[in-house]
Design a protein that fits this description.
The complex is a heterodimer of chains A (about 325) and B (about 260). By secondary structure, chain A is mainly alpha-helical. Chain A is built from 15 helices and no strands. The chains are: A mainly alpha (about 325), B alpha/beta (about 260).
Chain lengths: ~325, ~260
Amino acid sequence: MNRASLHFVLAALVAIALPLFMRSGTLASEVLIFAMAAAACNLLLGYTGLLSFGQGIFFGLGSYAAGLTLLHTSLPLGVALVLAAIAGAVVATGVGWLSIRRQGVYFVMLTLAFSQFFYFLAYTFKDITGGDNGLLNIPRPAIGPFSLADSWAYYTFVAVLFLIVFAALQRVASSTFGRTLLAVRDNEERAGAIGFPVRDFKITAFAISGAVTGLAGALHALLIGVAPLSNIDYHMSESILIMTIIGGTGNLFASVLGAGFYVIVSDLLSSIWPRWLLLLGGLLIVVALFMQKGLWGLLERLVEALPMGRKSSIESSIQPESEGRGL
Amino acid sequence: MSTQAPILAADKLGVRYGSFVALSDVTLSIKPNTIHSVIGPNGAGKTTLFHALTGRVRASSGRITLDGRDITHVSDDKRVPLGIARSFQVTSLFQNLSVRENLRLAAQGRTPLQALAPWRGVDPSGHSLVIANDVMERLELTGVSDRTAGELSHGQQRRLEVGMAVAAKPRLILLDEPTSGMGIDDVEGMKALIRDLGRDHTVLLIEHNMGIVMNISDTVTVMRAGRVLVEGPPAVVRDDPEVRRAYLGNMITGDLA
C-alpha cells in the first residue's frame, strides 16, 4: 500500500472511530470540520512554506456565505456549501495575490492585517453579519430524503464530505502542482529560475486552501446554527494554525491528528479549568522546541519503536504524499 | 562562421544597484553552437551579466536579444521556455527533494503551466521523467537518484547544479563557475562534460580555471570593473598585454589544446 492510500485509510478510520468513542455528535463533527481547515492550512504552510494568518477570514466568510444563503433564499444546502467554498476561494485569491508580493515576515504581517480588516468589516456591517451577536437561527435543511437534524446524522454528512475533501487534497498534494509547491517551499528562487511562475503557484494554493476553509466554515455554521463573529476573528486563524503545527506539517493526515487533538483536548480541559489555554500554550512551546514534526512525528517514532517493524509503511516524512509514487 | 547571426546578443547592457554601477555598456554576441567563456577578476561583473542575461536582474539600460527578438523585459521564468537555462555559482538545489525530482522539476519548467493543474498526476512514463533519467545517466547520478540533493557530496551537487540547466533542454546554457570548490579529480570530469555540452548546446561559461577556459572555449570575453576589456579566441586573449595586466600577469597559466 502506498503512502497516500495509507493516509486515506487512516483518515477513514478516524471518521469511523469518532462515533465509537465520543458521546457528542457535535464535538465529533467539529473534529472533522477543523481537520479540513487544518489540512487546507497545511497545504499553504507545509507544502508551500506560507505561514498564513488569513485562514480565519476564509473560515468566517464560509460561515456567513452559507448562513446568508440559507436564511434569505430557498436554495438547497448543497448550493449554500458551494457558494461558501467559492467565497473562500475568491477572497483567498485576493488576499493571496496581495500578500505574496512580500516575503517572510512582511508576508505574515500582511495576512495578519487582512485578518483584522475582515474582522472589523464583519463587525461593522451588523445588518448583514449580525455583528457581535452573529448570524442567528441558521437552518439545517434536509438533503433529499435525509434529515440532518440529529447530530449524528449531521456527523455522517460531515464525515462523507471530509473524506471527499481529504482525498481531493491528497490528489492536489501529489499532483505535479503539489510537487512544484514543495519545490517552491524548498527553494523559491530556483523554482523561478527553472521556469515556474512562482506567484501563480502560490495564488492557486491560496485559492484551493480558501475554498476548503470556506467549506469548513460553512459546515461549522450549520453545526451550531450560528455564524458567530468569532469564526472570522483572528483567533480563528490562530487556532487553525496551532492545530496544523501541533499535528505536523509533513503530510495531510497529520492535520487530522492536530485538529482532533486540539478540539478534544480543549473540550476536556475547558470543563476542568477555565485557564486551559495556558496548558495549550505550554504544549505549543514543547512542540516548537522538541517535536517539530508534531504529533505525526511522535506517532512515527512510536511505530518505529514497536517490535513488529512496520518501518516500511511509515518512514520519516519530508514529503510523504509524493514519495509513495516512486519519486 | 563569423558571419553567423548570434543566438544571444547584449547591446550596451548596463546594470546599476542604487548608485553602484555593476555593468556598463556591455556589448556581447554569442554565436550558436560555440563555447563562449567570460573571465575576469572578482567583482568584474560576470555574475551580474549572467543575472541580466537570464532575467534575474533587470537591465538598467541597453537591450538583450535572443535570435533577434528583444527579451530585455521578459522575466526570468518566461525566458526558460525560450531556450535559456542556467546553473548557479552558489549551489541552489531543492535540498529536501530527490535527485530525480530535482531534474524532473527542471525539465517540467519548460512547460510550467501544465504543472499548474492541481488534478494532474505525475505521469511515471512522462516526458519530464524521461529527460530526468537521461540527464542522470549523462551526469553519472543514476546511482544516487533517490537520495535527496542535500545528501550528495559537493562534487555531485555541482554536477546536479549543471544538470538542472541541462534538463530544461535549452539551446543556450549559462554555467556560472561550474567547478567552484571542486576537487581536482572532479574538475576533469566537469571539463569533459562542458566540452560535451558544447556539441549540442551553445554554452556561455564563467570560469576561473584557466586550464578549462583556454582549452575548450571558442571565444573568450575578458571583463574588468563592469566592462568588456578584450574579446577574441583563447590564444589572442591569452597574449593580450591588457589582459595580462588585469590579471597581474600570473593567473593565465592554462595550456592551449
